[in-house]
Amino acid sequence: MMTMATMWFGPAFAGRRRGGGPEGGRDRWNNGRVICPKLGAKSGWCRTVRSEVSNALRNLVAGFLGAYGFVSFWLFMALEENWTKAAPSDPNTALGLVYSHNEHGSYTYYSAFQATSLAIMFQTSIPLFFVALLIMPKSNLRTKGWSATWEPDDPRHLFWKAAILGVFATPLIVLIAGPYLIRTLNANGFVLDLG
Predict the structure, then answer these.
(1) Residues paired with 92 in a beta bridge
(2) Phi and psi based region of residue 127 (left: phi greater than 0; alpha: psi -120 to 50; beta: remaining)
């Protein structure tokens, strides 16, 4: 017999009743939604619900961070190439171009804003991409030495939805919100340089 609780929480909840009466697991004080009992994590269906929520959150965060890391790295490469072409090969203190940048043996000089922007983008993009790989839920994980293979544990395809959002949000974050952050950091005397 299909009860309300079985439809909402699946077979892990089948047979458990809360609130009594002929509702078959339906809690008449919570609009038909069953809440976790005072037993907390010891209850099987509460663990199932919590793990599904955890899985969804991990997929959303991993998708967004992975896309942010990937796109911001390519934005770093594009900005670095354009700024290197326009930067002088000798320091220019009148314009504030005093922070050296080594482009494969060729030195150019950036402003505090350019140096800090590139350093923060480079130092956050790659680690965030690997953090996304680390927190992404995995199933059938197989490791051999330093290599690993797995299948994504994303039944609702939330990872790719968050990744698409991250692809479109990253240029807005980096190119619109980023300059305000960098200018604030520079105004307070914080300058970061890749050297």
Answers:
(1) 97
(2) alpha
DSSP 73-127: HHHHHHHHHHHHHHS-SS-BTTTTB-EEEEETTEEEEE-HHHHHHHHHHHHHHHH
Collapsing DSSP to helix, strand or coil, 11 comes out as helix
Look up the pTM and report it: 0.70
**Rounded mean pLDDT of the chain?**
79
Residue 97, Cβ density class (10 Å: 0-12 exposed, 13-18 middle, ≥19 buried): buried
- In whole angstroms, what separates CA 155 from the centre of its chain? 18
Check residue 194 and report its DSSP letter. -
Predicted confidence at residue 150, as pLDDT, reads: 84
Domain limits of the chain?
70-187
Residue 193, pLDDT above cutoff 80: yes
Residues in the chain: 195
Residue among 189, 82, 181, 72 at smallest CA distance from 122: 72
Instruction: Look up residue 188 and give its DSSP letter.
Output: T
Angle between helices 112-135 and 44-86 (to 10 degrees): 150
Rounded to whole angstroms, the Cα distance separating 150 from 143 reads 9
Given a contact cutoff of 8 angstroms between Cβ atoms, the answer to whether 63 and 166 are in contact is: yes
